[in-house]
Amino acid sequence: MNTDTPRPPGPSAPALLLLYAALGLAPLPLAALQGGAGRGFWRELSSGLAMIAFAMLLAQFLLSGRFRRVSGRVGIDVTMRFHQLAAWGVFAFLLVHPLLYAVPALGDGPGAALSRLSGMFAAPGLRTGLVAWLVLIALMAMGAWRDRLPFRYEAWRLGHGTGAALIAILGAHHALAAGPYGADPVLAGFWKVLAGIALASLAHVYLVKPMLQRRSPWRVTVNEPVAERTWRVVVEPVRGPAFDFQAGQFAWLNLGHSSFSLVEHPFSMSSAPADRPRVEFTIKQNGDFTDRIGEVPVGTTAWLDGPHGAFTLAGRDATRLVLIGGGVGFAPVVGILRALRAERWPHPVDVLYGNRAATQILYRDELEAIARELDLRLHLVLSEPPAGWSGVTGVLDREVVETCLRARDGHVHPDALYFVCGPAPMMDAVEAALSGLGVRDRNIVSEHFSYR
Ligand SMILES: Cc1cc2nc3c(=O)[nH]c(=O)nc-3n(C[C@H](O)[C@H](O)[C@H](O)COP(=O)(O)OP(=O)(O)OC[C@H]3O[C@@H](n4cnc5c(N)ncnc54)[C@H](O)[C@@H]3O)c2cc1C
Fold first, then answer.
1. Nearest residue CA, atom 3 of ligand 1?
2. Is residue 5 part of a domain?
3. Which structural domain, as residue segments, surrounds residue 347?
4. Which domain of life, per UniProt (predicted)?
């Protein structure tokens, strides 16, 4: 995990944003080149917004977090937040798209506008557009209330993928058959290519990748408890190439199902690349799948999709590190620490590790051994410490973070590189504390374990 190692591949955040904006806006000049606008302000506005939104929606398929070439460099957090935010933009534009057609009729009263709307919704030629519009509303509702819906995550994911594919197909049909500019061969070609790429990306994730994975099966070689409700799961390749990754990255892990199964979950590698071909995960019981992780027998077949994520030191400029983890969010930090140890990292490292109870601390003996070998200060923080606790008492808030950071030489070093991973409230508190202490966003690398 040398800083000379290149960053995970992919465009930078500004480049990604620019590409996305360019793709979203591309239909406008293509439509304008056709001339013949002038169907009235509201109709043109409605078509313009719908075209932008549909292009954005099709580009969303590549922002699913499963394409390293797209999200490798910016990381999964930025990719998923962007995916979610952009989805709201798409939704707003497409929601008003049919409504705007009815605005001119408002001059004749709300009844006239309503009757124009109901006429449109009943028109056979607009049926595919209407169904796509309704599916989009359902998809957004499913996204917004995901954690409150009574489905398993896998059912949600299947619904999300199927709904998105339906919208792509029906929306493309609507744009080509009913869109005022859809007859133009260049714009029609644009929609066909973009919709084709979107659907191919789904086929890649759900069919091609699982097919390729079958060439490289893995096997569980260790599954043992390492802390309260937390398990250490080690997998090794049965055949095929050793898994190449950078410390701190994660993989989608499928244990004991077909490689085509939707039952796969993201977990950070808590081993170092130097430990390959062995790859280790530290998994906390936290729901349907993870609650039964301890029951997975040694010998179970595993499939790995990865590595993903940019929670890694590779390619970053750092001569001073601060690693801050809470709960099982410490798993990727352990991977980074093991890599630092393997490389005999010569620079100062401060580690702040928060938990509720001492029984939750992961790999404590090993952490203390690493602290002795490197220029590393380990701050174990507990909110409910046992009697005689010699570490820090409290939670990772501004006061605790500042005290730990100043413990080395009395200073906070805003130019250090800060890695933060843990439960969302902890991450918010730590990021606010760091920002209050003068650390700039670009010096903070963070990863959430939930896309909420
Ligand atoms: C980048 C990343 C790295 C992670 N690393 C670790 C780790 O090293 N150790 C660890 O214990 N946990 C890690 N997690 C969290 C872990 O993925 C979830 O705890 C696990 O998927 C929950 O599944 P479940 O069926 O047990 O729980 P459920 O009750 O089904 O789900 C709980 C929540 O977990 C999320 N989730 C569930 N399934 C998936 C899925 N297939 N894909 C994405 N999110 C899902 C959803 O937000 C869901 O609401 C990581 C998560 C992410 C995003």
1. 267
2. no
3. 321-447
4. Bacteria
